[in-house]
Amino acid sequence: MIVEPLEVGEDGALPGPLLTELTELYASNREFQQLSGDFPDPDDIRPEQVAASLAQELSHPDTEVLLARSAGHVIGVSVTRAHHPDPDDPDPWIGLLMVHARDHRAGFGRELAEIVEKRFRALGREGVRIAVLDNNPNGIAFWTALGYEEVDRRKDHRLARDCIVMRKAL
């Protein structure tokens, strides 16, 4: 697996073929999209919606979007924030880590999470957090298996969804 930062054009646009791949990735995770409510219709996720979602993420200066590729195809994406909006929270956050549904259970999610953690560790960060929707038992099980532990329960900032905040020491 190769991981690289998402590159957007000078106009902030994603190249068409890449946007198509990313839309397929998001759409392949129908169950998660249904739980999250990030898109109006989890059965009809459109390229312009994915582009708008990523543009919103990238509007924050401390956000990084990483693409995971295997055999030349996008198989995963991660969105991280170096700083939480709460100044008392010292940890970076994983806002999203998603692997194409056809590649679930192949170890790519674990590998991508480890790459994200390694990048933060190299920057001297001591821990990383993620807010997992509390209605997402598969997500909770995944992050728990990677060594993340529950540290809080709260609503997310964007859609006020119930979340379990999990942290892993680096």
Automatic annotation (TrEMBL):
Q: Could you tell me the superkingdom of the organism this chain comes from?
A: Bacteria
Which positions fall inside the N-acetyltransferase domain?
30-170
**Known Pfam families for this protein?**
Acetyltransf_1 (PF00583)
Q: Which UniProt keywords apply?
A: Acyltransferase, Transferase
- List membrane-spanning regions: none
Any one Gene Ontology molecular-function term assigned to this protein's record: acyltransferase activity
- InterPro entries, A to Z: Acyl_CoA_acyltransferase (IPR016181), Bact_Acetyltransf (IPR050832), GNAT_dom (IPR000182)
rRNA-binding is among the record's keywords: no
Write down the EC number.
2.3.1.-
**Xref: PANTHER family:** AMINOALKYLPHOSPHONATE N-ACETYLTRANSFERASE-RELATED-RELATED (PTHR43877)
Protein name, as recorded: GNAT family N-acetyltransferase
Please report the organism this UniProt entry assigns to the protein: Streptomyces lavendulocolor
The record lists the lineage as:
Bacteria, Bacillati, Actinomycetota, Actinomycetes, Kitasatosporales
